[in-house]
Write a structure and sequence with these properties.
Nuclear Transport Factor 2, Chain: A, three-stranded antiparallel sheet, single chain, two-stranded antiparallel sheet, alpha+beta, globular
């Protein structure tokens, strides 16, 4: 079993849990998936540090009409990385492509 396939099921399950929390509007559950010392680096916003600020960021995003979030792994050149997708509630059916990087250690 390759390292990628060994962890793929765990990562995919974590992404599904995260997406379900987002789609249900549960910013607290989203924030709980981040480490206590996490920093969220959205390209168009102030850095959110720690669970309370991360929760507020996602709560504001959800209240702003972003919905139907989907994280998925994409393979490119043998390297797998996350991609995300969401829809605008104010413009039904219109995709919103969040920009940014997922950083993990």
């Amino acid at each position: 079993m390759t390292p990628t396939s060994r962890y793929e099921a765990d990562v995919t399950a974590a992404y599904k849990t995260w997406d379900a929390a987002f789609d249900s509007g549960d910013a607290k559950a989203i924030a709980a998936s981040y480490a206590a010392d996490a920093e969220l680096l959205p390209p168009t916003h102030t850095i959110a540090k720690g669970p309370a600020e991360i929760e507020k960021f996602f709560d504001d995003l959800i209240k702003g009409g972003v919905k139907s979030h989907a994280l998925k792994l994409v393979e490119a050149g043998g390297h797998r990385e996350p991609r995300n997708h969401a829809e605008s509630q104010s413009k039904p059916g219109q995709s919103v492509q969040p920009k940014g990087k997922h950083i993990s250690s």
